[in-house]
């Protein structure tokens, strides 16, 4: 930048040329960052980098701004590029911190340890040790969550088996345990209400489901339960209220699609049920006895007896226990 000399001091009308340099842009970027004007900070620091592309300090600062706004991948890209040309040890801590934010715990630990190896008494020593401590806690929590998920899966598969086989008392014992162990799992209460109903506690089941629907009025499981409950109880006005939204819903997941198809078949909407069953991917539902029971039932009721028999024979072949049951249309 041109310096003011004794000759120019007295010439107040002269305008001196001002050529911004990288440090000027960088300073403006820091000022914007401190005021939490992150968009402006990014623009100024990028200008500084354009002016001095080899200045790693500028790139480090840009990465810190990216971290502040949650652009962790962009921040790490910058830091990795710095490490290709300069052994800036601080980059290892910054990279570790970004990986931690991304949930990539192993990568975070790797770069935190690299920092400690290369500069065990560095400026970020305390931060790195704290980060490693947090990562250990996070890993322990993840392990606990995985164990809980495995345990939950075992319970869910057991309940599913009993409910599909209409072993309602056995299902009830498992569900009572699940309500204690996994109180925040939403479908457990719906399964509990369904089991209550088919054990003969109809009013308790309806009351429980209505309470659940107050907190989640659009629940597909809740609507289907209440549609079935009210249909079986002869409450047709209430049944129509709950079946109506199900007729308009076309879920993505096969389990939910099957739920609607079974509900329609159970409540006399046979043509609509068959249409829904036809949309299902059978290979994903072979373990569901309800698929064969209610697809056969609906097909029979729309007059396609041959199709009904074919579905029922296939079901009995895949699930020999179905042979002990009457055909779904036995009482028709």
From TrEMBL:
Record SUPFAM superfamilies: TPR-like
Keywords tagged on the record: TPR repeat
InterPro entries in UniProt: TPR-like_helical_dom_sf (IPR011990), TPR_rpt (IPR019734)
Signal peptide start and end residues: none
Each TPR repeat, start to end: 22-55
Highest taxon listed in the record's lineage: Bacteria
Protein's name in the database: Tetratricopeptide repeat-containing protein
Source organism: Virgibacillus chiguensis
């Amino acid at each position: 930048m041109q310096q003011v000399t004794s000759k120019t001091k007295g010439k107040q009308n002269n305008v001196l040329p001002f050529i911004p340099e990288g440090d000027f842009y960088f300073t403006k970027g820091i000022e914007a960052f401190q005021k939490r004007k992150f968009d402006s900070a990014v623009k100024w620091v990028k200008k500084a980098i354009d002016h001095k592309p080899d200045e790693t300090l500028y790139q480090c600062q840009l990465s810190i701004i990216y971290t502040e706004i949650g652009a962790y991948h962009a921040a790490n890209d910058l830091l990795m590029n710095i490490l290709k040309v300069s052994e800036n040890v601080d980059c290892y801590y910054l990279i570790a911190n970004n990986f931690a934010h991304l949930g990539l715990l192993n990568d975070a630990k790797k770069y935190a340890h690299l920092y400690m190896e290369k500069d065990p008494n560095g400026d970020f020593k305390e931060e790195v040790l704290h980060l490693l401590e947090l990562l250990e806690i996070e890993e322990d929590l993840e392990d606990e969550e995985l164990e809980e998920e495995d345990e939950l899966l075992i319970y869910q598969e057991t309940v599913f088996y009993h409910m599909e086989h209409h072993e309602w008392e056995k299902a009830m014992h498992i569900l009572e345990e699940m309500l204690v162990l996994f109180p925040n799992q939403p479908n457990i209460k719906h399964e509990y209400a369904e089991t209550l109903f088919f054990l003969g506690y109809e009013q308790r089941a309806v009351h429980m489901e209505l309470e659940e629907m107050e907190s989640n009025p659009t629940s597909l499981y809740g609507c289907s339960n209440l549609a079935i409950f009210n249909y079986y109880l002869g409450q047709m006005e209430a049944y129509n209220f709950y079946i109506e939204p199900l007729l308009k819903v076309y879920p993505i997941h096969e389990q939910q699609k099957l739920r609607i198809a079974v509900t329609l078949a159970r409540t006399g909407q046979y043509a609509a049920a068959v249409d829904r069953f036809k949309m299902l991917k059978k290979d994903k539902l072979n373990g569901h006895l309800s698929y064969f029971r209610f697809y056969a039932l609906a097909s029979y009721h729309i007059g396609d007896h041959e199709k009904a028999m074919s579905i029922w024979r296939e079901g009995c072949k895949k699930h020999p226990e179905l042979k002990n049951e009457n055909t779904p249309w036995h009482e028709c």
